[in-house]
Amino acid sequence: MGGIIVNMGLAATLNRCLKLAKGEYIARMDDDDISLPDRFEKQVLFLENNPDYAIVGGAIRLYDEKGPYGIRYSEKYPDKKRIFLGSSFEHPTVMIRKDALVKANGYTISTYTRRAEDYDLWNKLYYMGYKGANLQEVVLYYFESISSYKKRKFKHRLDLIVLSNIWRKKLKIPYNIFLFKMIKTFASGLIPNRIMYKYHRFKFRENNSIYIN
What we know:
The protein has 213 residues and is α+β, with helices and mostly antiparallel strands. The protein has helices spanning 10-20, 39-49, 80-85, 98-103, 117-127, 146-150, 154-171, 175-190, 193-203; strands spanning 25-27, 34-35, 55-64, 67-72, 95-97, 132-143. It has a single domain, classed as Alpha-Beta Complex (Spore Coat Polysaccharide Biosynthesis Protein SpsA, Chain A). 45% of the residues lie in helices and 17% in strands. The longest helix has 18 residues, at 154-171. The radius of gyration is 17 Å and the shape is globular.
């Protein structure tokens, strides 16, 4: 008779994988994302040549059921403010030093970090003194369709506001910056998913690709 399969949630599952991993570097991506063949080579080379950096990400080429439709870049050297605002790294592109993840106790398991596990992790790592960078080239094909937007629930936006306030205090972020993030997070949660999807398809179209903000 088989055992009962329990869904531990994303953060707990990622932490379990972290304990099983034996490599010096950790890279995570979803099953519908596609890494470019030389992605790991370039990111390992960056970390080997830049020992003061613990995180390295890169740009993504967006695609949906119809094919590629745009490119999204992240700032080359995101600072604490950029990390707090949440426009710092594309999670599936990131490679991280395992020892930094271990010292940070991995991903936080909390109701406030649901759908924001990566945002919480970046803030935590920067709070601990680590820093990261983004290669200014596409390293991964990232699947983002209307179905992806439908997974973004308004309650997760409210959780993110609570989480942001926690990190505002720890990182000593000015309140006006938190207020800006709170308004933006709340407002984006009120816009219908289909409109947000079409807006991002226009914003990040390949001949008009820009940095996330």
